[in-house]
Write a structure and sequence with these properties.
Layout (H helix, E strand, L loop, with lengths): L8 H13 L4 H4 L40 H13 L1 E7 L4 H13 L6 E6 L3 H10 L3 E7 L2 H8 L5 H4 E17 L12 E3 L6 H12 L5 E3 L3 H9 L5 E6 L15 E3 L13 E6 L12 E14 L6 H20 L24 H14 L5 H4 L4 H10 L8 H19 L2
Parallel strand pairs: 1-2, 1-3, 5-6, 5-7
Antiparallel strand pairs: 3-10, 4-7, 4-8, 4-10, 9-10
Helix pairs in contact: 4-10, 5-6
InterPro entries: TRAP_TAXI
Pfam families: NMT1_3
Protein name: C4-dicarboxylate ABC transporter substrate-binding protein
Length: 421
Amino acid sequence: MRRILAVPAPLALAMLSAALFTPGSAALAQERTAAPLSLKPARAPEPRVPEPRVSERRTPEPRTPEPRGASDEAAIKTRMNQWTVGLAAGLPDGGFVRFASEMARTMDDGDNMRLIPMVTRGTTSNIADLLYLRGVDVAITYADAFDFYAKQAGLSNINDRIRYVLRFFISDVHIYARDEFKTLQDLKGQKIAVGTAGVAAAHTGPLIFRRLGIDIEPVPIGGPVALEKLHKREIAAMVYVASKPGEVFSGMKADPGFHFVPVPYTQQFSDFYYPTSIKAENYPALLAPDTAVETIAVPSVLAVYNWKPGSDRADRVNRFVDTLFTNLARLQQPPFHPGWKDLNLEAQVPGWQRYPYVDAVLERMKKEADVGLPPATTGSLSPQERFEAFLASQAKAPTSKAEKEELYRSFLEWSRKRQGK
């Protein structure tokens, strides 16, 4: 007679689970065919109450946008490029980049005008970018950059291909040397720091000596590095081109044993340059009171490619000119560079031809401003009208364009001082 041991219910349930889910057990082998095992007595099923389906109201997951059709992409590309203009500005640490950035900020008009400033290899290379680089229609450079491309590069037709829109600020040539070198001729055969590649001095410095027939040994360093080597007597002089007071010399203390070498304005410089002087008020620590050193100045230029009238690229340049002139008044207000206030829209650039559309815009601006009303009604005289009045008050009238330009700079300084009173 076999004895049947009573097993407690919890233990029986555990044993049954172990048998069912142990690998290799008979229960596991029959899992796919055997009916589900019930551990409860059979009873009638209770009516089921459906639970709310919360998942139906869940937040939809982000969907990847469906790709646009080829026609949509083409329309976007056309719209974005229609009125976009590339501007060759200059080196990252150069002054031109700031002017270009401020222009882009003020001239941005959505799809109607977008100016894209480009960091380039420098002022001279900006001419090459304007001539050959795809997408560049505008460039900032110095007026004497023409000399390199017209003579060294052999581009005799450059005046027809590139025109100017505005003459920007004027930069002065500083030649700072040891005291034993009194004149430019004394620097013959000497080591002269002319600045690193791309800066204005690297082009203008050697060009000045070359035009005067003075052979020098150019050293490609500039700024504070050149000034340090000058004090160590490793070089004889340094060339620095910037609007005075230049950053390198402004704030300097007295510097015995060194001085600015005069650069006389001669016939060799009548094509691109202006006569000017470095005055004691520019560098009070480096020059004795009420003294000045004559030198020359080179204007910077906002240039454009002279596209064929009626072409797509010409239309872009024309719209650029319209938008720039419309925003000039805004650019002449803070926080933009104070150099914008010195712009003379009528100023010419020696050796360059103005872009024809600019003349049409200036004529239109004059007609819009000249409505035949007295000054009390129109507000005040324009800067050009004030300048003409200033000229009339001078004892000696200028006899050349160069003298008139220098007098205009004096007028601007005079105007600023009067406004500060």
